């Protein structure tokens, strides 16, 4: 169970990271790589620093305080021992694990030896001796040695000279605290078994030029590790952030833009992250869908116009043919000089009827052209107002056609009487067209029903006539479609109703009733006021 919960938490964490915003993911990438840079720079800087110390380590292996053993010609380890409160000290042989006796012959010429004597009477210092009760104090400054920086080859001569100078000074100053340690001879102190002297040396082995150059290079690398690693990690973080979080989204948007530019809208824009690029991809998809719908609408409009023009040309051919025949026949009679008055009157009446039919065709076409440019003007409207308008239209048409009409509303609408947002004029014209068409084919009864569902006003008109044929169910809303050709009707009623419903965000559906008769359902979207 604990393992399952752990796996669920891990999956939730992965999902949260997958959909993290670009700002959050960039900060996480930068923080992670900066921590990596800190660790790597610290490790590598420490490594180069260690190498630097190893390079110059040999220079310090013999460094320290030493005494010179003239009998064995060696340098022996020593330590300073204070002999009074004034800081006077002597150097006493000692044993240290890291320091051993060194024969002069084993020392490199690079070894530097420095006089470490720090007693008050050492070279360069003044010594005041005498009594405080004396009238005057004498001041002596011992002769300074020739040099204090020595090579191993120079050390024996320098050490002998320095000890002789100290012995001469000690003999001239018997009150010195050094007297108890040196009995007139600085070559041997009174510390039994250990070499003691007032003259000591610091020994130092400087690194070679090659080691010094390598040490400088390693020191530079140690310094450069921090900016180098931080720069590399920042670059790596930016590259990974771009590759993981930006590049996939840019590729999706680039392909979408290319398809749209090529007017190819049969694709979808999908991106599986819920970040800023995901939101942009969703906006692209909404734009693509809108463009695709607009393109389909334009295509439908163009196709509808082509069908309309074809239907108009086809229907126009009949009256034109009749006119042409009548004119030719009339011309023949006129040429023969035998034109009865009644035939002439009939021919003129027939010509006038065909001209009138042509005028109606032209008026119908003009009405369709105006309908395409008509805008929907939706306003808040009471349900009772729409119901009353439909009932008045149905009652008037039924009286003229000698039919029976009844209007009903859904139980919810009857109870709530919702407020509608529709174009009152469009709803009225559609209702009149549907009711007029139903009155033509009904045997005796036409029914209408109003309802509001799925965000639309629904008007359903039924009749008890023969119903729709298969051809009518398929093409009943096409312009100039009519199963019963008539000089009075051009088959535009359902087409006009369908166009107006589509403009109002809905449509028209043709059905047959189970009990016989036709059913036409018109829908009007109620979302126009929200827009």
From TrEMBL:
Q: Which residue numbers delimit the HAMP domain? A: 253-296
Intracellular or extracellular location(s)? Cell membrane
Q: What is its EC number?
A: 2.7.13.3
Q: Show the GO MF annotations.
A: ATP binding; phosphorelay sensor kinase activity
Does the entry feature the keyword Transferase, yes or no? yes
**SMART domains, per database record:** HAMP (SM00304), HATPase_c (SM00387), HisKA (SM00388)
List the transmembrane segments: 26-48
Q: Where is the Histidine kinase domain?
A: 311-528
Name the top EC class. Answer: transferase
Pfam families, per database record: HAMP, HATPase_c, HisKA
Signal peptide span per the entry?
none
List the CDD domains hit by this protein, alphabetically. HAMP (cd06225), HATPase (cd00075), HisKA (cd00082)
Question: What is catalyzed by this enzyme?
Answer: ATP + protein L-histidine = ADP + protein N-phospho-L-histidine
**InterPro entries cross-referenced by the UniProt entry:** 2C_sensor_his_kinase, HAMP_dom, HATPase_C_sf, HATPase_dom, His_kinase_dom, HisK_dim/P_dom, HisK_dim/P_sf
Q: Could you list this entry's UniProt keywords, alphabetically sorted.
A: ATP-binding, Cell membrane, Kinase, Membrane, Nucleotide-binding, Phosphoprotein, Transferase, Transmembrane, Transmembrane helix
One cellular component (GO) term of this entry: plasma membrane
Recorded hits in Gene3D superfamilies, A to Z, give: 1.10.287.130, 6.10.340.10, Histidine kinase-like ATPase, C-terminal domain
Q: How does it sit in the membrane?
A: Multi-pass membrane protein
Spell out the protein name for this chain. Answer: histidine kinase
Q: Which organism is it from?
A: Eggerthella lenta
């Amino acid at each position: 169970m604990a393992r399952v919960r752990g796996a669920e938490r891990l999956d939730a964490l992965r999902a949260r990271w997958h959909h993290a915003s670009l700002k959050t993911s960039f900060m996480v990438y930068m923080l992670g790589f900066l921590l990596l840079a800190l660790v790597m720079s610290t490790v590598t800087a420490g490594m180069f620093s260690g190498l630097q110390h190893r390079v110059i380590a040999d220079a310090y292996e013999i460094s320290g305080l030493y005494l010179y053993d003239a009998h064995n010609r060696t340098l022996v380890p020593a330590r300073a021992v204070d002999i009074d409160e004034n800081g006077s000290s002597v150097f006493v042989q000692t044993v240290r694990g890291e320091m051993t006796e060194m024969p002069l012959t084993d020392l490199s010429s690079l070894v530097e030896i420095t006089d470490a004597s720090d007693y008050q009477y050492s070279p360069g210092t003044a010594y005041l001796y005498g009594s405080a009760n004396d009238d005057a104090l004498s001041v002596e400054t011992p002769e300074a040695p020739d040099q204090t920086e020595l090579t191993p080859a120079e050390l024996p001569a320098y050490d002998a000279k320095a000890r002789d100078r100290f012995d001469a000074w000690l003999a001239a100053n018997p009150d010195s605290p050094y007297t108890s340690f040196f009995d007139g001879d600085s070559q041997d102190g009174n510390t039994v078994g250990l070499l003691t002297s007032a003259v000591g040396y610091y020994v130092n082995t400087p690194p070679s030029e090659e080691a010094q150059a390598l040490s400088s290079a390693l020191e530079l690398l140690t310094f450069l590790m921090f900016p180098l690693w931080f720069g590399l990690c920042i670059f790596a973080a930016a590259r990974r952030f771009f590759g993981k979080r930006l590049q996939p989204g840019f590729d999706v948007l680039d392909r979408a833009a290319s398809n749209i530019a090529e007017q190819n809208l049969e694709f979808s824009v999908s991106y599986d992250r819920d970040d800023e690029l995901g939101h942009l991809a969703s906006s692209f998809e909404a734009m693509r869908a809108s463009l695709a719908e607009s393109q389909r609408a334009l295509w439908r409009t163009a196709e509808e116009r082509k069908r309309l023009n074809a239907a108009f040309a086809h229907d126009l051919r009949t009256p034109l043919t009749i006119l042409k025949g009548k004119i030719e026949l009339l011309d023949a009679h006129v040429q023969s000089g035998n034109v009865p008055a009644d035939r002439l009157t009939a021919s003129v009446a027939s010509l006038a009827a065909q001209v009138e039919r042509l005028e109606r065709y032209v008026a119908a076409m003009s009405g369709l052209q105006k309908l395409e440019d008509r805008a929907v003007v939706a306003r808040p409207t009471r349900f009772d107002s729409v119901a009353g308008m439909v009932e008045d239209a149905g009652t008037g048409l039924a009286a003229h056609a000698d039919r029976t009409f009844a209007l009903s509303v859904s139980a919810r609408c009857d109870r709530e009487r919702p407020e509608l947002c529709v174009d009152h004029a469009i709803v009225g014209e559609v209702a009149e067209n549907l009711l007029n068409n139903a009155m033509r084919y009904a045997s005796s009864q036409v029914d209408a029903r109003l309802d509001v569902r799925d965000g639309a006003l629904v008007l359903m008109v039924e009749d008890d006539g023969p119903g729709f044929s298969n051809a009518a169910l398929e093409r009943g809303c096409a312009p100039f479609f009519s199963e019963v050709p008539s000089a009075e009707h051009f088959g535009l009623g359902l087409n006009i109703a369908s166009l107006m419903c589509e403009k109002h965000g809905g449509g028209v559906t043709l059905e047959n009733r189970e009990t016989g008769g036709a059913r036409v359902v018109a829908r009007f979207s109620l979302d126009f006021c929200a827009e």
